[in-house]
Automatic annotation (TrEMBL):
It is an enzyme of class 6 (ligase). This is Leucine--tRNA ligase. It is found in: Cytoplasm. Residues 28-47 are annotated as: Disordered. The keyword Ligase applies. The lineage of its organism: Bacteria, Bacillati, Actinomycetota, Actinomycetes, Micrococcales.
Length: 970
RNA sequence: GCCCCCGUAGCCCAACCGGCAGAGGCAGCCCACUUAAAAUGGGUUCAGUGCGGGUUCGAAUCCCGCCGGGGGCACCA
């Protein structure tokens, strides 16, 4: 049987041919090459350079081997549409895509398949490249790279050496003079130590220190340093992890393995030095509020005071003080006891050998003396994991330490407790407990019969048996020479801090939740550190001219992993097995000549490569610098105007113009990257203060899952839908199945791939469908059977230009009738605004509308369909190029100027005016668009239908919004 | 427990600064083409905006309180 499909119909097959042909042509012509003002690719004469510039970027993918589904390219298509649109405005547009190819996912896939990570990673990247090409991405291929390329990670290592060889000078003026604090080369700190301008913390003389001692001093300042501290050890992954990679319930973000605290010597990055700038600069960014909030919460800056509670008697004689941090210094009058963390060192000094006279029996754990009780409590606490401690959060437990401190304001003696609801890692590890204004302290006070004093007047409806944490006037807060009574919280805080500072009992203090970034991993597949260790145990950076330090071949690249529950295991770096690589003779050029060193065997986390890749996109062929300064300034330097919604007085921080990616990187990649960028800024390598000026989180495409009566998923593509009186039902192979909504995944049997869609409909149809499903940020369900609507649109557009039977172009060169002309200009105007604002879904709706209008004409005028082809080009670029060519153009339309709307044709001369009586529509009038209010009011009141509605009632008021509306109030 | 986002037709989504609830698509129904079906084309039905209050001449839109869905944080002193 012969198919009765017209020979020249725009079918998936024809689309496939057209698409492949145009992809070849774009590639051979370098259509998407953008122009650089300087550096190896300088093209200073390119006219686009002076015509505006935009950098559009996607979060680059991991070539993990799991395979793409239709959700993955959503953001890529959106940025491609935007970039293609911008090119038609004459702008110089940079849009490319590389690969985040180091790291766990790539390594795990390699381990699973028993191959070297480089082999599988490169194979997967090839698949990705082919798929991206097939989707018609206008990426600039020559700017693409992978983080595993030695030419790339050479610079990742170089940045590490810069960070390592820097320190944060909190008192130096900011680089732009607009604040205090910046990173400086470590050599300047050494000079200060040598000259004596700055004292060494423990008071020794620099000249008298050994190399190892000097190194130890400098490690206290370097922005990258080795520290022995409790870290997150994940036996299941065989590596340590940063705080950001551990979930709230104490498991690894990747793989969901248990994580344990182990004391280990690891590389850290001093991100905490930038905490303030990382918080403050958020308001200069055009980012989703949600992401800003997540970063603010993660950094967790809180303002308060440290207050010393003392004297506490020491067992060995004399007294000591206990410092607490509080955000509520205004409530000190209500501090009736203290609690220190079980790990607090002061406990070693103050716990006496006998319970004080009259100790409440509930305070003692039933132990005969405080030492036994505190020791037992500390042991029990140390056995609890963070997870268990959190799980027990409801019950406040603790034990009396047997000692008393003095409330520095009231002079009252107050008991000191040990309690695990106080964390050693936050503030000072000790708190003043104010049960009246703190729920946790209230719980503790109730459990241990401790006094409660309210120092803020609760609201009248506040329950008697609860802490009051709200705002109100201070009460019970007076002593001789100080009264907070009647003051609001903010004012009371200020007054209190001033009082404390005047007496030396406390001082203003800011604390942060953010901790330094644990930067080393015990994995093979990552960047080696550009660090060698000498025989004294002193670290040295590898000189720039010896970079990159290439990743060696090892007999076994898989990490040593352990039983996920084996908390006692220790990490082993796979690189340590490359003994010939580890032992190395080098002349570091420091005057010490050829010496033997041991290479650092940890590798960097995969965040390292993604921390700065946007900078390399700018100038990927540059061998002399990570990016030419002029190129950086041109593409992502600060713009004259601040971003939308920035507070008054804010300046633009620079950065990538548009960055699109998933929200899952809110506090990982996006925080690390901002940190590195600010270091590079301080050191003068970049002119921008932020990496990403504008961020959009694309939504996910989800899918329906169908399950049979056993609960097993059945292939979603084979499910039939039945509309019935009792609602819609679903069957698979004749048996009833249930529908639920969720993620797309192999095990759920609902995966749809871009390749399938290209096969069945063509890439352009797929692009149009994904873009018309809804706003970019929105989560939405995939529905394959709806894709045909997008295909029909493109087929109708095709048919408006080409005869399906003969393949001939059928457009006519006639003048547009008034209606078509108006529709065209309205569409151009709307589509331009929509594409500009990334509202591609509504842009497509407007194009469909115009196309449907053209379909109804006897013959399609060229003057109408050519602009439509241009407008559709960003979304369906292959089809548009093909039609453009068939319409007689020889050049690609990638740079053809976007159609302009004539403002004169956008105004209607006659509009429909709605006449309401008491807000209800009673009549419609056709009136001139420029009708004046008085005339319109007269016309409305004269309407018989309006008069009938008014029914003789007196008119109280008439609201006129010429020319659209009149509302008569009776 | 606290914070953020979202609820419009059977489904996905529009609706600009508060001003006629509907741009577009899917599905359904009718018609044309076809021996027939598919494909294609043309036409058409469908909601008063999750619920309850309030502000306003006028509310999908602003405010308050619920309900439902999604997400973030959670002894942070």
């Amino acid at each position: 049987m012969s198919e009765r499909i017209p020979q020249h119909r725009y079918t998936a097959e024809l689309a496939g041919q057209i698409e492949a042909a145009w992809q070849d042509r774009w590639e051979s012509e370098g259509t998407f090459h953008s122009a650089n003002p300087a550096g190896p690719w300088a093209e200073p004469d390119d006219p686009r350079l002076t015509n505006g510039h935009t950098m559009v970027m996607d979060m680059f993918p991991y070539p993990s081997g799991a395979g793409l589904h239709v959700g993955h390219p959503l953001g890529f298509i959106a940025t491609d549409v935007y970039a293609r649109y911008l090119r038609t405005t004459g702008a110089n547009v940079l849009h490319t895509m590389g690969f985040d190819a180091f790291g766990l996912p790539a390594e795990q896939y390699a381990v699973q398949t028993g191959q070297h990570p480089r082999v599988t990673t490169e194979a997967n990247m090839e698949i990705y490249r082919r798929q991206l090409r097939r989707l018609g991405m206008g990426h600039e291929r020559r700017r693409s790279f992978a983080t595993i390329d030695p030419d790339y990670y050479r610079w990742t290592q170089w940045i590490f050496t810069q960070i390592y060889n820097s320190w944060y000078d909190v008192s130096a003026p900011a680089r732009l003079g607009d604040g205090i604090g910046r990173a400086r080369p470590i050599s300047e700190l050494v000079a200060q130590f040598e000259s004596g301008e700055r004292a060494i913390p423990d008071g020794r003389a620099w000249a008298g220190l050994s190399p190892a001692e000097r190194a130890a001093v400098l490690d206290g300042y370097r922005l990258a340093y080795v520290s022995a501290a409790p870290v997150n050890w994940c036996p299941g992954l065989g590596t340590v992890l940063s705080n950001e990679e551990v979930t709230a319930d104490g498991r690894s973000e990747r793989g969901n393995f248990p994580v344990f605290k182990r004391n280990l010597s690891q590389w850290m990055m001093r991100i905490t030095a930038y905490a303030d700038r990382l918080v403050d600069d958020l308001e200069r960014l055009d980012w989703p509020e949600k992401v800003k909030l997540m970063q603010r919460n993660w950094i967790g800056r809180s303002h308060g005071a440290t207050v010393t509670f003392g004297p506490v008697e020491r067992v060995e004689g004399g007294t000591t003080g206990i410092d607490v941090f509080t955000t509520r210094p205004d409530t000190i009058f209500g501090a009736t006891f203290m609690v220190v963390a079980p790990e607090h060192p002061v406990l070693d000094e103050i716990v006496p050998s006998a319970w004080p006279e009259g100790t409440d029996p509930t305070w003692t754990l039933g132990e005969p003396d405080p030492r036994t009780a505190v020791a037992a409590y500390r042991t029990a606490a140390s056995r609890k994991s963070d997870v268990e401690r959190q799980a027990d959060a409801k019950d406040k437990t603790g034990v009396f330490a047997g000692a008393f401190a003095t409330n520095p304001v009231t002079g009252t003696k107050i008991p000191v407790f040990v309690g695990d609801y106080v964390l050693m890692g936050y503030g000072t590890g000790a708190i003043m407990a104010v049960p009246g204004q703190d729920e946790r302290d209230w719980d503790f006070a109730t459990a241990y019969h401790l006094p409660i004093i309210r120092t803020v007047q609760p609201t009248p409806d506040h329950p008697e048996d609860k802490a009051f944490t709200g705002e109100g006037p201070a009460i019970n807060s007076s002593i001789e020479g100080l009264s907070l009574d009647g003051l609001g919280v903010a004012e009371a805080k200020e007054r209190m801090i001033e009082w404390l500072e005047a007496r030396g009992a406390g001082s203003r203090r800011i604390t942060y939740r953010l901790r330094d970034w644990l930067f080393s991993r015990q994995r093979y597949w990552g960047e080696p550190f550009p660090i060698v260790w000498d025989e004294d145990g002193v670290a040295h950076t590898v000189p720039d001219d010896m970079l990159p330090v290439e990743l060696p071949e090892v007999p076994d690249y898989s990490p040593r992993t352990f039983d996920p529950e084996d908390a006692g295991s220790s990490p082993e770096a796979p690189l340590a097995r490359a003994t010939e690589w580890v032992e190395v003779e080098l002349d570091l050029g420091d005057g010490r000549g050829l010496r033997t060193y041991r290479r650092e065997t940890n590798t960097m986390p995969n965040w390292a490569g993604s921390c700065w890749y946007y900078l390399r996109y700018l100038d990927p062929a540059n061998d002399d610098a990570l990016v030419d300064p002029a190129v950086e300034r041109y593409w992502i330097g600060p713009r004259p105007a601040p971003v939308a919604d920035a507070p008054a007085g804010a300046t633009d921080p620079g950065g990538v113009d548009l960055y699109v990616g998933g929200v899952e990187h809110a506090v990982l990649h996006l925080l690390y990257s901002r940190f590195w960028h600010k270091v590079l800024f301080d050191l003068g390598y970049v002119s921008s203060e932020e990496p990403f000026r504008r961020l959009i989180n694309q939504g996910m495409i989800e899918a329906y899952v169908y399950r049979d009566d056993r609960g097993f998923p059945v292939p979603a593509a084979e499910v039939e839908e039945h509309a019935g009186p009792g609602g819609t039902t679903y069957t698979w192979n004749g048996q009833a199945v249930t529908q639920e909504y969720g993620k797309m995944g192999k095990s759920l049997k609902n995966v749809v791939t871009p390749d399938e869609m290209c096969e069945q409909y063509g890439a352009d149809t797929f692009r149009v469908y994904e873009m018309s499903m809804g706003p970019l940020e929105q989560y939405r369900p995939w529905e394959t059977r709806a894709v045909v609507g997008s295909q029909r649109f493109l087929q109708r557009l095709w048919r408006n230009v080409v005869d399906e039977e003969t393949g001939e172009v059928t457009v006519v060169d006639v003048e547009l009738d008034a209606e078509t002309d108006k529709a065209l200009h309205r569409t151009v105007d709307g589509v331009r605004a929509d594409l500009e604002a990334l509202r591609t879904n509504t842009a497509i709706a407007k194009m469909i509308e115009l196309n449907n209008h053209l379909t109804k004409l006897d013959a399609v005028p060229r003057a109408a369909v050519e602009p439509l082809v241009q407008m559709v080009a960003p979304v369906a670029p292959h089809l548009a190029e093909e039609l453009w060519q068939r319409l007689g153009h020889t050049e690609s339309l990638a740079y053809a100027p976007f159609p302009e709307a004539d403002p004169a044709k956008l105004v209607e001369d006659v509009v429909t005016c709605v006449v309401q009586v008491k807000g209800k529509v009673r009549d419609r009038l056709e009136v001139p668009a420029d009708v004046d209010e008085a005339t319109l009011e007269g016309l409305a009141l004269a309407s018989p239908r309006v008069q009938a509605s008014i029914d003789g009632a007196p008119v109280r008021k008439v609201i006129v919004r010429a020319p659209n509306l009149v509302n008569i109030v009776v």
